[in-house]
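Appendix B. Raw example, untouched.
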Amino acid sequence: MNKRDYYEVLGVSKTATEDEIKKAYRSLAKKYHPDVSTEANAEAKFKEVQEAYEVLSDTQKRAQYDQFGHQAPGQGGFGGAGFENFDFGDIFSAFFGGGQRQSQGGGTRPRKGSDIQRKMTITFEESIFGKKEKMKVPVYDECPSCSGTGARSSSDIRTCTRCRGTGSVTMEQQTIFGRTQTRATCPTCGGTGKEITVKCSTCSGEGVVKTTKEVEVRVPEGIETGQQIRLEGFGNKGQNGGPNGDLYIVFDVQKSDLFERIGDDIVVNVPITFSQAALGDEIEVPTIYGKVMLKIPAGTQSDVKFRLREKGAPNVRTKVKGDCHVIVTVVTPSKLTNDQKKLFEELARLDKDPAQKSGWDRFKDSFAKTKK
């Protein structure tokens, strides 16, 4: 009988990663396991999946298969190994869960506490210059009454009667390979090897209580919305002597009425008058670091952009500052004085006369005369 392509059997591409192959195998092995599957020919399909995984999960065998197919040189082809080199741990994990294969006393190992995430809202200016701020964080910390034991007193703690202090018990599973014994975390003591006869009244035997801690947060210069920092050890209490979890601060930067940040650059819009645009001028513009003087060349058009180097935001990692981009907008006056009205009427008349100078040139000349 012709064998199916191993990649086809597992339903993966020929460029699949090791993790993708393992994930596909576990899914199919669970689907076709004879003890749980109701499909026809489940056992044959199960063996086919095993054979494909045995080859594709081995780097050397997979390379040979990719080159020669089912007939590897000098080996009489693949598929003869059966179950001899099969990792039973994978199939046990798929059906019975990782906890079934824990080593003796595994539940007593130190475990890190869970992490905490909190949001901090800051102003635009604070995101540029950074700051220090204290914030209150609710956490689960060691119970002060029982020092984390969960018992009323030390005399209320005894060796677990079920596992006899080992933290694990022997469990049996019926599989296609026969009756198999595995070690699992003791359900009575949760793997600690100890039982509490009288629980602590403060924490109800949990060993931790919910409390509030005050934490000083240093806001980095240049932080942006969505970025976060980690404060090691400020999370929830660890178990069995394990370290505390971490505190993650996620920042939300408020929008500025004046500035807009794009990457590490800052953009600011500045209005100028017709006369400033036509004749040129030196104007005062705001930056996040204070006001600076900017030269406007004669004949500047609306929406022209000027760059002020290193007047932008500092990069949160490199601390190198971006630039400030000043966009000028020529503003049309809503009200005119009599003198201004006469000047614009003269400009309009000159614009209609092709023999005369351009309207803007005439306007510049007229405006220059009024300044003398």
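End of appendix B.
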